[in-house]
Amino acid sequence: MNFIDKLNRRYASKMMNGTPVADEKIENILEAIRLAPTSLGLQAFEVFVIRNPQIRQQIYEQAATGQPQIPGCSHLLVFAAKKRISTEMLDEYVSLIRRTRDFPEEKLTSFRNMMGYLEKRTDEDNFAWAARQVYIALGFALAAAAVEEVDSVPIEGFKPAEVDRILALGDKNLASVCMMAIGNRDEALDYNAKLPKVRKPKGQIFTEL
Known about the structure:
Layout: H1 3-9, H2 23-35, E1 45-50, H3 53-63, H4 69-72, E2 75-82, H5 87-100, H6 105-114, H7 117-120, H8 123-147, E3 151-155, H9 160-166, E4 174-183
Antiparallel strand pairs: 1-2, 2-4, 3-4
């Protein structure tokens, strides 16, 4: 199958059968997240990869009772954005660039000064900005799962404050934004598994100028 065929195969799995997904496939999905583009390349988020069934069950019962994929999945990814963009974070990023690329010091200084606008914005504005970067990474993860021919579903229907409490995200300068369940579809129980994909025709989405 080519990429489009694999995208046609994927759907938002409503029920998963609990079987594990191979570590190699999971690693490829995580690598796609790591390589996803973000504004400035800052990657102002972290992803929690939850294999532990007890933690997944706790999240399901206390934060997302309407999401039966969570206890039935192989891995649950929790995407959490930085609540505050600190000076230390920006300095560490510039240090990473310095170690990775042979850039003149004046170019690095100029780039660091340019990023200073983030230190002047409110935490609310920076969190909203970081959350938008999370969704780029989520999109790459969903596409990578399709390539690996494993099932997945993005999840926004949960109580972020409860997830943050369960994972102690407040202590890490993080707040949950979205989740993604990865697993194998349960075709016997998932009404959505064999339904045709519903999408608007191209003419209603694309405008050529």
